[in-house]
Structures are given as C-alpha cells and as structure tokens.
Amino acid sequence: TCCRFSSLKTLLTSMEGNPSIVLNVLPISIGRFSAVPHWPLLGVPRGLYLRRLFVLLAFLTVLTVPGFSSFASVASTCAISKEAITVATSPINTVGANLIVVAIAYQNWDASDVPVLSNGYLDPVSGVYVPAASMFTPITTLRTGPWALQLLSSYNPVFTDALHIFLLSPGRYVPSICVWAFSGATIGLDPGKYNGTTYSGGSVNTNTIQTGSITPGANGELIITAVNQGETTCDSSIAVSSPSFTGIEQVPVLSVYLPNPLVPTLVPICQSADSYFPAGPTLGLAMAYYVQTTAAAIDPTWSWTFSSNQSMAAIAAFK
User: Fold this and answer.
1) Whole-number Å distance between alpha carbons of 177 and 77
2) What's 167-218 look like in SS3?
3) Residues 240-256: b if buried by 16+ CB within 10 A, e if exposed
4) Strand extents, DSSP E, the chain
5) Per-residue DSSP letters for 83-111?
6) What is the pTM (predicted TM-score) of this model?
7) What pLDDT digit, counting tens, does each position of 147-162 carry?
8) What's the pLDDT tens digit per position in 35-83?
9) Is 301 helix (H, G, I), strand (E, B) or coil?
10) Across-strand partners of 256?
11) Which residues, in sequence order, are CB contacts of 95 under 8 Å at separation 6+?
C-alpha cells in the first residue's frame, strides 16, 4: 500500500488515529555508491569518483615504492681560472632547481684561507654581473699539501636565474669550479652522509682514487661525487665507475701557445704548465651524479689518463 502515497507527509497523515503504529524512516539513497537521490537521472557518471580515487591512490603508491625518485638535472657547468686568482662560470639556467651542489678545487698552503663562493646573474641589458645573496653551506673540505677540494650545497636556494653565474674569488690560487642544479630535493643533504679521501704519493703517481664509502639513509637518494685530479687539466678521459654515474662535468681541457726556443713557431702546450701560471699549475676538477634506486653502500672510483702525485675525491648523498 505504501506505493500509493506520494510523499512522507501523505503517509504520516494517513496514520492519524492509529497511535499504535511506529514508523522509523531512514535516509535512502538511490544509485550505487552515490549520495545523490535518483542519481542516474541527474547524469552523475556511475563510478567516476571511485575511478578518480583509485587513480590517486595508485599515484601515491608509486611515490612510496622503494627506489622511486623525483630528482632531475636542471643545469650544470664547470670552469677553470684563466688568470690564476678568480674563476667565474658561464651563465646557466637554474630556474626550477631546489638543490644546487658546487665543487671547488684550489691551491693554497694556508688551510685557513679558503676562497669565497658567491653567485649572481648577468644583466641581459648591460651585460654586467650583478651579485645575489650568499646561500651555500660547506659539506666537506679535503686537503693534501697545498691542494684542496671542497663540496658545498644550497637547498631551496634563495636565488635562481636564467643567467645564473657562480664566482670563486680569491682562488689562492688557480681555482676550478663545477656546479650542478637539480629539482626534486626534499631536505637537501642527508645528514652525515658524506665522505672523502686524499692521496699524496710523493714520487709515486696515481691516476685513480676512490671517494670513501657512504650508505644513503633511504631509497632514491641523489649521490654527488667530485674529484680534484691535481695537475692534470690536459686530461679529457676522466671517468667514474661502480656504479656507472649518469652524467659527468669537468673543467675544460684548454691549451695555450707559448714560444718554444727550439722551434721558430708557437706550439701548443697543456694549460697546466708552470710556465703559464707563475702561481702554479691549474687543477683538474670533475663532478658526477647518480640516483641510487635502492639504498646501499657506495664507494665509486675515479680514473683518468695522466697520473699525478696528489689527488682527492669527495662524495655526498641528498634527499
């Protein structure tokens, strides 16, 4: 008989005079998984919201799968001093980066005299370098004799630019610099996850060095390593192995022309020649990165062709 009543009011009216009848009315939704009354008639797609929910859950699951990483290279560059005191990189576009890692190599017997790293941008109108806020924190500094290698980083840098320049001054002496910018960082340096080794062989030269082992604290971390090869800027065959790193940046391999007393014409010699820079030879510097899928101990090996009696390498992990 209930089907004859067109509304709840009609039903309740018909019950007057019969107080013995108790009726509990519960909210009823017509249409599977929908709170919309008579949902199919309103054009709400069946299961649309559930499908969207499933897609969202699947995406969040991917983000938490071991080995998933969102790190991406934004820009990189290296530069070598041409006048033995300061060095500046060519402009790179760091817009979109939230992690910038810098490696510097230099020569100085005074361990307390460390070159200052600054950054800024190239004014597109005037072509003049404009300084920006300092924003780098040292991670580790390695020394052997007068040679040094320092690794620095900036998480969520206060400044990025399409014409970003990095300047090292004073270099004390013959400085080199490598810069790599990334997106996808969550905290920057993984605390305590860095290491480094030095080699000083006296009369015994070498052309390989390991960084020392680190074990990242989580899957998908960014591994950065850098090497100061010593007096080997003529070497263009530098490599890093175990594992195979994704990319390598190194200071340019440059030559200059100096008079040869035995030959009436100019001949090219390596830029690292002492006769070119009275302050001393320039330093080979290279940098590489690797996103480690599953956290595990890592101790990569750098190698190059021309051996040297002093070298050093550093490594650090970032989240």
Assistant:
1) 8
2) EEECCCCCCEEEEEEEECCCCCEEEEEEEEEEEECCCCCEEEEECCCECCCC
3) beeeebeebbbbebeee
4) 72-80, 87-88, 99-107, 116-122, 129-131, 137-144, 147-155, 164-169, 176-183, 189-200, 206-210, 221-230, 239-241, 247-250, 255-260, 263-270, 284-292, 301-308, 310-318
5) SSS-EEPPPB--TT-SEEEEEEEEE-S-T
6) 0.73
7) 899 999 999 999 999 9
8) 545 445 445 455 666 666 655 655 444 444 444 559 999 999 998 876 6
9) strand
10) 269
11) 74, 160, 161, 162
- How far is the C-alpha of 311 from the C-alpha of 231, rounded, in Å? 9
| DSSP 3-state of 56 | helix
The letter for the amino acid at 52 is: R
**Phi, psi of 40, rounded to the nearest 5 degrees:** -60, -25
Residue 190 CA neighbour count, 13 Å, CB half? 20
The distance of Cα 73 from the centroid of its chain, to the nearest Å, equals: 6
Q: Which two tokens stand for residue 77?
A: 């560059």
